[in-house]
Each structure stands twice: as structure tokens, then as C-alpha cells.
Amino acid sequence: MIYPDLTRTRNDEQAQVSQQTILLVDDDPSISGLVAQILQEEGYTVQAVTTGADAEGTIDRLRPDLVILDILLPDADGLMLCSRLLARWPAPIIMLSGSARESDRILSLRLGADDFIAKPFDTLELVARVQAVLRRAPREGGAPSASPLATARPAWPSRADYPSMAAGSGAGKLSAETLHIGELMIDSRRRTVTVAGQPVHLTPTENRLLTALAAEPERVFSRDELAGVLWGYDSLGESRAVDVHIRRLRAKLEPFGETAPPIITVRGFGYKLGEVPE
Q1: Is the whole-model pTM more than 0.70?
Q2: Phi, psi (5° rounding) for residue 273?
Q3: Strand 172-174 and strand 115-118: pairing?
Q4: Mean of pLDDT values over 196-218
Q5: What is the C-alpha to C-alpha distance for residues 167 and 183, in angstroms, rounded to an integer?
Q6: What is the CATH number that goes with domain 2-136?
Q7: Domain 163-273 belongs to what architecture?
Q8: b/e per residue 54-72 (b: at least 16 CB within 10 A)
């Protein structure tokens, strides 16, 4: 069922929001209807489905900007469905759960979800988390509107953001749409990552993590800083979950050997992207 937009945009910011589409997957009509209404009042277009099968069928056609996915569905495990949806379309995913199990939160992040909200939730918090995830996520056909390092910056770093990476001054090279570290290339417009021309298939969370590290090679990022990159200022308690995503990211870069820059652990602090061997 598609819920009609309940608001009319009155300025450029509202117009941008009104172009963003959210796929809502929840079989509880009271929650689904409430969430849809709240998000519509903020200017988003919402399409709601009640089963995993409908979600998989809809995402190919809708190509939403964001998915809100309940863990408990009548025909699917939402955690496994999260991975399947990401394989079909790399939209950011916010998981919903009525369970108090901490394992649900950790598994959600491990499987590529961008955020996790426990039921019952505050409606203002829901809106704030949706806005934060969408600010961090790349938009189809263009660059995202927020930085992987801070929401006040453009989402994909520019030379002005990182002057040490100006041409000829370091290992990395930046352009308006691409970031190069040796044979590694991150293309913000196409939302692709390649090493020596070969594609690296990353989730949106892994992409943000790699982009943050590649934006300032050799800079050591703390776990809390990287948690802020992935889940926002209000999720810094998830800093240890960064280790999980680092392991997954390393596993995807390892097949490329020395052509891919190494992700180096700085014991007791965090991680950095190392230099590419010459």
C-alpha cells in the first residue's frame, strides 16, 4: 500500500526531502501507519509492505533512498532479509525491533544495517535518525549531502576539506567525484569502489567506512570517530561494532593483495589506511 504525501514543499530543502522515498517493511499496521504518517508529515514519500517477499519484489522497482525494516516478519527473518535487500539495491537500512536482545543490534550492524531502533521508540528520535542516515547516504545520480566525517561538510571529501591531499602532496588524490589511493578508486557519483579496475562490492556502511579512512590516509581514527561516521553522534556507544565492519572490509580487500592499501590497527586507539607499497 502506498501512503500519499501529506505535505507540500515550501522551500528548496523541503523539495529535496519530498523527492526521497522510503520503503517501510513492517507487518504491524498500527506501527506501520504511525511511522508512515510521521514521515509523510516530514515530506518523505513512503511505501509500506508487510512481508519479506513484498519487500524483495518492491525494492527492485522502487529503488528507495532508505529502507526501514522490522526484524520480525511473518515470512522472513528481518536480519537475513537485510542482507538480501542490500544485494538487490544498496540503500541504507534502519532496523526496527521489539526485542530487548543486544544481539539483535549487533547482528543488524554486522549484516550491513546503518542504524537500529528498538520498539517502542520516540517519534522525534525516529525522524532524527532517518534524517541523519539520509544525510550520510549517497543519492542516486549525485553526491550525498553530508560528510562521512561530519554533517557540516560535504559528504564526499573535497580538496578544501583535506588540504594535505592536494595534488602532489601525498599518497591520495581527490577530484570532485573520485578519491584515489594508489590503485583504489572510490567514485562518489556512481557509488562504486574499484581496485586496479576490479569492482569491490561493499555495503553502504562499508563504503562510508572506507571513504572516511581514504579521505585522510595515515591519519589514525579512533573507534568513536568511526562510529560517528557510520551511525551518527548518538550511536557512539556502538564503537566496538566498528571492529566488525573493519574485519568485513579487510576481507573484501584482501583478495587484491598489495594493490589495495592496508587497513592498519593502531592498538588501543583505532585504525588508519596505510600507504600503498611502491
Answers
A1: no
A2: -95, 120
A3: unpaired
A4: 86
A5: 16
A6: 3.40.50.2300
A7: Orthogonal Bundle (1.10)
A8: bbbebbeebebbbbbbbbb
